[in-house]
Amino acid sequence: MEPISYVDALNEHYGSLGFPPYEWTINETAPLTHLDKPLQECRITILTSGGVSHCTMPGFEADARNDHRLDAVAGDVNTGDFAINDSYYNHSDADEDLNCVFPIDRLREMAAAGEIGSIAPRFWSGFMGRIYNRTKVIQESAPAFVEKLKEDGVDILLAAPA
């Protein structure tokens, strides 16, 4: 049996749905940055890109392309108050336990146990679907998001892609 070429299989599948071939981003200028304080003193937040929307927000477009929407989610929300609208992955397990793609409860447990310093006042959900306009991400969306993280005093962003 031949091994499956993941990138070729993805391009074939999404090509059949009308998507152009995916071009992987190679970050040659993103250096590893060590923490300048202990994890137990760090403020942490989460970003999920899994099409997760809080009940107070409109659902994401399940077949989105180039969706730069970014929802701020209050830090005290209940994980039962979310819906997942994303056709790009099987989210049946996440429908049962949101923490599979948006580990809010796990982060709270770590804060309660003193393993991390604190949780930021906001969590984040966005950048859903297949994003082909990377220039917009690099030049607009990501810098704007970084400013929001700075407003919240975030030391660590946990990215939870779906």
Mean pLDDT: 89
Structural class: alpha/beta
Helix-strand sequence: HEEEEHHEEHE
Q: State the separation between the terminal residues, measured CA to CA.
A: 29 Å
Count of DSSP E strands?
Answer: 7
Quick rundown:
The chain is α/β, with parallel strands linked by helices.
Q: What can you tell me about this protein's structure?
A:
- The chain has helices spanning 6-16, 92-96, 104-112, 134-151, and strands at 43-48, 52-54, 70-74, 82-84, 118-119, 122-126, 156-160.
- The chain has 162 residues and is of the alpha/beta class.
- It has one domain (36-160).
- The chain starts with 5 loop residues before the first helix and ends with a strand.
- The mean pLDDT is 89.
Features:
two-stranded antiparallel ribbon, 4 helices, five-stranded mixed beta sheet, globular, alpha/beta, single chain, 7 strands, about 160 residues
What is the fold's blueprint, element by element?
Blueprint: H1 6-16, E1 43-48, E2 52-54, E3 70-74, E4 82-84, H2 92-96, H3 104-112, E5 118-119, E6 122-126, H4 134-151, E7 156-160
Parallel strand pairs: 1-5, 1-6, 1-7
Antiparallel strand pairs: 2-4, 3-6
